[in-house]
Amino acid sequence: MTDPGSRPIAVVTGASSGIGEEFARQLASRGYDLVLVARRIDRLQELAAKLRPVHGVECVAVEANLASAKDRDRLCDALAADQGRVEMLVNNAGFGTHGFFRETDLDRELELIDVNCAAPVHLTKRLLPWMLERRRGFIVNVASLSAFTPGPIMAMYFASKAFLLSFSEALWEECRDTGVNVTALCPGPVRTEFQGTAGISKKARSSGTAPVPVERVVDDALRGLFEGKRVVIPGYQARIAAMLSRVMPKSRALKTVRKIQEERRRQSREA
Q: Is 0.85 surpassed by the pTM of this model?
C-alpha cells in the first residue's frame, strides 16, 4: 500500500449521490485519498466504508452545508494541515429549481446561488493557491449543458451553470502553463437525484438529449481534465446541442427551451 503521507488528496463536494459519488469511486480507484463533502453524513460514511478496503485509500466524510460561508471556511481550514497533498477539487454540489421565477421561493433561489456559484468560488479561492505553489493541481467545476443557453422556467439554474462555465474558462486561461488545470464539465441529462430535488417527475421527458451513464460522464471528465481540456461535454448528442446553441438565434433557443420545460412542468404535475 502507498504511504498515506505521499498520496494526493481529492476533495469532492456533493459526494453523497450521483456524479459526486461516481467521482469518489473513480478517484479512489486512481489512488487518491478522499475528502467527501455533503450534508448527508450517513451516506458519505457508507460510501467511505465501501471505498477504503477496496482501494486502500483514506476517505474522510465531512458534513457541511455549502450554502454556509462558515461551513465552507471550516472545511478549508481543516484541509490546510494537508494543503501540500490537496491535488484535486471537484466542485460538484448543486441543485435546481423548476417553475416560473415569479412563482419560485426566494430563499430557495438564493440558496441555489450560494451552493451552485458561491461555494465553487469560495473553495477554489482557498485551494487554488496551494496547487499553484506546488505547480500541480486539478479543478473540475460541474456545470451543465444548460450553461450554453438561458433557461425559461429554470432561470436561476441555467444562469448559475452559465456563471460556472464562464468562471471555469477564465481560470483555465489564468492557470495555463502553471501546472494547474481547470475544467468545466457540462453534461446533458444524467440519471441522478437532481430531477427529484428540482421538483421534476422521473416520468418527465429529458431536456432534449439522450441521458449519458454517470460512469461515462465522470470517466470523460477525468480524461479531459488530465489532458488539459477547458470544457468537457460527454455524449455526441450533447456536443451537437452545445454547438447548435452557439449558432441558433437567441429568440429561437429561448422558445425551444421554454417548450421543453413547460412540457416537463405539465408532466410533473400530472405524475
A: yes
Asked whether the beta carbons of 104 and 185 are under 8 A apart, the reply is no
DSSP sequence for 144-181: -GGGGS--TTSHHHHHHHHHHHHHHHHHHHHTTTTTEE
- Give φ, ψ of 78 to 5 degrees: -70, -35
The CATH number given to whatever domain includes residue 191 is: 3.40.50.720
Torsions phi, psi for 166 (to 5 deg): -60, -45
Domain with 135 in it: 4-270
Q: Which three cell numbers stand for residue 53?
A: 478496503
- C-alpha cell, 223: 480524461
69-79 and 119-134 helices cross at what angle (nearest 10)?
Answer: 20
User: Which residue numbers are catalytic?
Assistant: 157
Nearest Cα to Cα of residue 267 among 191, 192, 201, 222: 201
| Amino acid (one-letter) located at 66 | L
Question: What are the pLDDT digits (tens) for 218-234?
Answer: 999 999 999 999 999 99
Contact assessment for residue 115 and residue 95, using Cβ atoms and an 8 Å cutoff = yes
* Number of structural domains the chain divides into: 1
